[in-house]
Design a protein that fits this description.
By secondary structure, the protein is α/β, with parallel strands linked by helices. Helix content is 42%, strand content 19%. The radius of gyration is 21 Å and the shape is globular. The protein starts with a strand and ends with a helix. The structure holds ligand TLP. The site of ligand TLP has 14 residues, from helix 3 and helix 4.
Length: 352
């Protein structure tokens, strides 16, 4: 599949969020049996939630509008006002979710340094857990991100997550995983996604990234947790009505789009190899479908000029600020698109 705009093929590598519903998804959406999901009446949403819970090895799941809403609802459900949540300093929840947990939930974020592989060191987590003291907020939650977006799409291993879960639980804390791309992690590590989710009290994963659905995420956890989360979803305006139209695409994501993620990872590796050979560009090791690279010190061109020059050649990517860029592979990018993107980058860098 390819994006065609004004008769031209566009190689859109800005994110896996740009994926459009596949023909099979559109057909499933057209034919979806629906009801009012706030009354619990939408059979397609109910089916998606049951499938998601089963895939993650949890008792229940809740369909939410976005990854941001999934994380927000999870934090609102685990924490009360004045509670503290331990978050990686490079985590999407800390950097890119508009401070929702603090703004809407009065939840105090406690930053712990992310290592380049996306982990938080166990001693750092331990040191961040508050003791009982009238001066302190109460620590309630530890959050991990898998794969870790800003740590180069690195997947976190089950053993690591297990160790964090044990540490959290031994202090009476909960563990939440932002698993926006947890299926990329499972495919890259060749494990059942259940193993990655097992230590967590809650996990959020996105349908609308590499799995290609137009909208939606699932928050999964114990039945009692999801019962409370449903109330919090309503509170933030996320109780949708005939949402089966959207859930229908999500069912196609879960049944048809998971195994093919390996192709996106292979395409990302090919991009990495190609970029590594372009003078003036320095690429990071690739683990899943996210590729990060930067200008070498001698390059004079600005980030904006690079992005614009590629846009003129029908290739889109994200500038991440000072001299850094991200390209993301997904189901609308094939091997030919990768070669076109590399050709365009070579040409632009020759003129840099
Ligand atoms: N990430 C987007 C942008 O917001 C940066 C992207 O293009 O990568 N957790 C993680 C790890 C994410 O990467 C994202 C989105 C979210 C949560 C939020 O998901 P949405 O966009 O559905 O709210």
């Amino acid at each position: 599949m390819a994006f065609i705009k004004d008769g031209k093929r566009i190689v859109d590598l800005r994110s896996d969020t740009v994926t459009q519903p596949t023909p099979e998804m559109r057909e499933a959406m057209f034919n979806a049996e629906v009801g009012d999901d706030v009354f619990g009446d939408d059979p397609t949403v109910n089916r998606l939630e049951a499938m998601a819970a089963e895939r993650m090895g949890k008792e229940a799941a809740l369909f939410v509008a976005s990854g941001t809403m999934g994380n927000l609802v999870a934090l609102l459900t685990h924490c009360q006002r004045g509670h503290e949540a331990i978050l990686g300093d490079q985590s999407h929840t800390f950097l890119n979710e508009a401070g929702g947990a603090a703004a809407l939930g009065g939840i105090h974020p406690r930053m712990v340094k992310n290592q380049p592989d996306g982990t938080l060191l166990l001693p750092d987590i331990q040191a961040a857990i508050r003791d009982e003291n009238v001066h302190h907020p109460r620590t309630r939650l530890v959050c991990l991100e898998n794969t870790h977006n800003y740590c180069f799409g690195t997947p976190l291993r089950a053993e690591y997550t297990q160790a964090v879960g044990e540490l959290a639980h031994s202090h009476g804390l909960k563990l939440h995983i932002d698993g926006a791309r947890i299926f990329n992690a499972a495919v890259a590590l060749c494990v059942d996604v259940k193993e990655l989710a097992a230590p967590a009290d809650s996990i959020q994963f996105c349908l609308s990234k590499g799995l290609g659905a137009p909208v939606g995420s699932l928050l999964c956890g114990a039945r009692a947790f999801i019962y409370e989360a449903r109330r919090n979803r309503k509170m933030v305006g996320g109780g949708m009505r005939q949402a089966g139209v959207l859930a229908a695409a999500g069912i196609v994501s879960l049944t048809k789009m998971v195994d093919r993620l390996a192709q996106d990872h292979a395409n990302a590796r090919r991009l990495m190899q190609g970029i590594a050979e372009i003078p003036g560009l320095v690429v990071e090791p690739v683990h899943t479908n996210l590729v990060f690279f930067r200008f070498a010190p001698e390059v004079k061109m600005s980030e904006a000029e690079f992005v614009q020059a590629l846009e003129q050649r029908d290739v889109r990517l994200l500038s991440l600020g000072p001299r850094r860029f991200r390209v993301v592979t997904h189901c609308w990018i094939d091997a030919d698109d990768i070669e076109s993107a590399l050709d365009a980058m070579r040409e632009v860098m020759r003129k840099a």
